[in-house]
Amino acid sequence: MTRRFRRLTPIVTALVVGALLGGFVVERVSARNDLYTYLDLFNDALAKVEHVYVEEPDAKELMYGAIRGMLSSLDPYSVFLDEESFTDFQVQTEGEFGGLGIQITARDGVLTVVSPIEGTPAYDLGIQSGDRIIAIEGETTRGITTDQAILKLRGEPGTKVNITIYREGLDENLEYTVTRDIIRIDSVPYAFLMDDDIGYVRISRFSRTTATELEDQLDELDAQGMRGLVVDLRSNPGGLLSEAVDVSNVFLDTGELVVSTRGRVKEQNKGFYASTPARYSRDFPIVVLVNGGSASASEILAGAIQDWDRGIVAGTTSFGKGSVQTLMRLRPLTKECAVKLTTAKWYTSSGRLIEKPERWETEELADAEGTDGEDVEVEEAKPEFRTAGGRIVYGGGGVNPDVTIEGGRRSDVTVDLERREEFFEFAIQYLSDHEIAGPDIEVTDEMWDEFLTFLEEDEFEFTRDELSGVRDEIELSMRRDLARKLWGRERAYEVAIAGDTQLSRTVALTMQATDLDDLFTLAEDYVAAEGEQVDE
Q: CB 3.0–4.6 Å: which of 68, 130, 263, 285 could bond 344 by disulfide?
């Protein structure tokens, strides 16, 4: 071993031990002995690299790579921040930058969109929750960390970035060119009455002003005669834990547990409680709407309302991001470097773990009854928990809804039209030659024919029969982007949700409830009716 690496070995050992333990005390002697056994193995491998590798390795890159590899074996959220990454992290949390407007994570080794953020470039292009970003500027993203991906996607406002997306159900990958922009987001961008007296509130994220914004919007809805409420948390990537607790204060009573954190050391074991009386009585029906893009703080709020029987959760199972990351600097050996390490996990008041496993366990049953000897994949039963009122809710990661209501799936051709921005480009062209008085927009046969001509001139490949088969769906997108161009984002949103079957079914369920107990009964009846349809 050369003198340079002999000097490096004790430094490497100290660094790896420090990163592994993160300042924690290993209480068991056997665990400590195992650690040093494997450190000997690491030192042996390091010596062989120094003596035998075809080229002399760079000590810094070798050690940084070792730390990255170590942390990547833990979970998708524990990462090493080198000097450049740490500086960029500080800009991300304290400064202003140009981005796409998506919340991303690494799941099963693939970069995945948790959700697009409303009103941002990614959202306007139709990028969806669950999309897998498989390449950035033509380079594969397999094995990339979330922080590394953010560095590639972020840049100066106005610059462009090319990404390749795999979307479940499509035969071909989608190519997007996204123009970066400053990401500024309203926490509660939409609030209005639906069907005269059911309040609808959209919470898009949890920031420092979310609780205040929500209270203001609810004041207006109350003044308009609201008698029930739908809180839409779909594709909400989360945000600040403190705001999740403050927003939960609106619905929970003083002293009720919102969420708790549990880790290996007692400092990570904390409970967060409501500090004010509930705004609404227990008679007031509330439905929280979630989907696979509802994550983090969204799951805290949904789980709290469900566990304390303040309302029901509808939609589909949430994302399952329920862990706490702590930023720890690594100094003085590595100067401005740090590790972002998962130190605790979140639990709802009933004891459910929010964090979802990478894969839900399944087992194969050979020669199962009625299968003629074929193997059958069976999902493990999800653990049961009890709410404050004794209702059964399910664990297993994420927040499982009381009432499962699937979202509608858009046709492939509509997705492709959205990706190419055909609807908005047509809106720009059409409104340059026509006037629409409003407030409603009708897609006449003449407008439809102009749209088809526009697509032909733009060399979009289609058949008229193909588009006619999904005309209602396409017309909705046309009216939405015409409204966006004419009257702005809020009016466009109101047009778009007219075709939101998941929301309309949720509102219909809320409308039928005279009080909260009635809502619980209706939810049970809904689930029973859905089960009968499946049996049939």
A: 263
Residue pLDDT, tens place only, 253-301? 999 999 999 999 999 999 999 999 999 988 999 999 999 999 999 999 9
Residue with tokens 């999902």: 379
Mean of all residue pLDDT scores within the chain: 85
Angular region, 184: left φ>0, alpha ψ -120 to 50, beta rest: beta
SS3 246: helix
Rounded to whole angstroms, how far apart are CA atoms 353 and 323?
9
Show contacts of 1-8: CB within 8 Å, 24+ apart.
1/47, 1/50, 1/51, 2/50, 4/59, 5/46, 5/47, 5/50, 5/59, 8/59, 8/63
Backbone angles phi, psi at 290, to 5 degrees: -130, 165
- Sign of the Cα pseudo-torsion (217, 187, 163, 342, in order): negative
Nearest to 260 by CA among 350, 169, 371: 350
Instruction: Compute the distance between CA of residue 126 and CA of residue 120 in angstroms, rounded to an integer.
Output: 10
CATH architecture observed for domain 190-323+344-358+381-404: Alpha-Beta Complex (3.90)
- Tokens found for residue 449: 């024919």
Query: Token match 């972020």: residue?
Result: 154
Residue among 240, 277, 278 nearest 259 (CA): 240
Query: 446-501, pLDDT tens digit by residue?
Result: 999 999 999 999 999 999 999 999 999 999 999 998 988 888 778 888 899 989 99
Query: Helix or strand or coil: residue 342?
Result: strand
DSSP secondary structure code for residue 344 in this structure? E
In angstroms, the CA 176 to CA 419 distance is 7
The rounded distance, in Å, linking the Cα atoms of 40 and 496 is 61
Q: For the domain 83-182, what is the CATH code?
A: 2.30.42.10
Query: What amino acid positions are annotated as catalytic residues?
Result: 296, 307, 321
Dist CA 528 CA 533 (whole Å):
9
Gap between the terminal Cα atoms of the chain = 73
Distance CA 111, CA 123 (A): 17
In 167-246 the beta strands, taken as DSSP E runs, fall at: 174-179, 181-182, 190-194, 198-202, 228-232
200-213 burial string, b = 16+ CB within 10 Å, else e?
Answer: bbbbbbbbeebbeb
Nearby residues of 191 by Cβ (< 8 Å), 6 or more positions away: 199, 200, 201, 202, 217, 218, 220, 221
Q: What is the dihedral of CA 332, 333, 336, 342, to 10 degrees?
A: -100
Are the CB atoms for 363 and 380 separated by under 8 Å?
A: yes
Quote the DSSP letter at residue 387: -
Q: Which residues contact 73 (CB under 8 A, 6 or more apart)?
A: none
Cα gap 199→218, rounded to integer Å: 8
What distance in Å separates the CA atoms of residue 459 and residue 519, rounded to the nearest whole number? 51
